[in-house]
Amino acid sequence: MKLPVALIVVEGALEVPASLRLLQDAGLSTKGLMPRNKGGRGRFWKDAPRYNQAAANIGGVLGLADLESFPCPSGLIQRYLKRPLHPNFTLRIAERMLESWLLADVGLARYIGVPSSLLPSNPDAEENPKRTLVSLARRSKWRSVRDDLVPEAGSLGIVGKGYLPRMSEFIERHWRPSEAQLRSESLRRALAAIRQSIGR
Questions:
Q1: Distance CA 15, CA 77 (A)
Q2: Does 13 lie in the same domain as 32?
Q3: In a domain, 141, yes or no
Q4: Fewest 10 Å CB contacts: which of 37, 43, 57, 171?
């Protein structure tokens, strides 16, 4: 039995393909689904109560955001929703960023051209998984990966100009959430919640 997902809402651009992959991994068709990218943490949490309320009327809603520096996912949810999470609203928080879930897949090492031994053993514990991923990319054997993922000298950004398309490609074509969950408790809980909501 599958619970229809009427709406997907995400914090940022990289969560768009990630949310679809999570649903696919859980055995749910994503045909016709177009995640709403809120374009940042502030906008996502400002509208989260509205999506929580909407879940009672439209059916399944999947939300995906980053924990970042907040102490715990449950506290973050309580802070912004103000009222209990509706059963139809599957709201999952990546610890500390979505990149920790990507680092948990050993296939990422092959994708960016570094030894798998360089991947962190506990990605959820990384203070800034995005910086960790970029630091790994600096050691890539492929110049194209370095050019895409590493910011140019003198840049104020923490990622390269090709970061989003390159990592989106990894998520869409190579990321294996079921394998990655073995190295990320945060991802394991997210997949379990999604599968439970679908009724598997």
A1: 18
A2: yes
A3: yes
A4: 57
d(CA 163, CA 66): 18
Domain that holds residue 20: 5-97+184-198
Contact 183, 121 (CB under 8 A): yes
| Each residue's pLDDT tens digit, 61-106 | 999 999 998 988 989 999 999 889 999 999 999 999 999 999 999 9
Tell me whether residue 162 is in a domain. Answer: yes
Take residue 119 and report the two structure tokens written for it.
């991947």
Give the up-direction half-sphere exposure of residue 39: CA atoms within 13 A in the CB hemisphere. 0
- Residue 163 CA to residue 139 CA, distance in Å, equals 15
Distance between CA atoms of residues 151 and 106, nearest Å: 23
Residues 197 and 91: beta-carbon distance below 8 Å: no
- pTM equals 0.93
